[in-house]
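Curious: explain these tokens?
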Amino acid sequence: MEAGIQPIAAIGDFDSVSDEQYGRIERDVRTVHSFEAEKNETDLELAIQYAASLEPEEIVMTGVTCGRLDHSLSALHLLYTVQQKWPNISFTIENERNALSICRGGTHRLGKEERFHYLSLFAMEGTVRPLTLRGVKYEVTNEQLTLGTTRFTSNEWASNEAIITFQEGVLVVVRTANDTIQA
């Protein structure tokens, strides 16, 4: 709210806010769902469940990594899980420098955005194959991307659209800002 964003809902255990901040949340936010701190779900997971119940076309998760590797991995795994559970909703994790999404087999077209310079691909589940990349600096045809490989890191757009095609596996797509841009 300090950033000028007026939330329609606040969901979580609120263990990281002061009593004063929580009072403001209760006063200024239409829907507040408070949970005990000891629970099986993260606050992000509870928030995503609520957001998905509203049946949007897209859910963008921001501020979810907190600069912590455990939160980053948790958010990535949640991204994978919710994209499988709600395939008709487009889920993305975004910050000032990155956007992460999950893709299942098929053809995916990514328009070039001025803020993103690099395009990296990682296997999330199984071997991604046959992988074909077009519209990027390092094009490939009918390749395999296995879990743990770094080969498809830091590709670049060569046209206004990158086309990713594959039939098997699940892909993590990461779009990243140029290293010279200050965050």
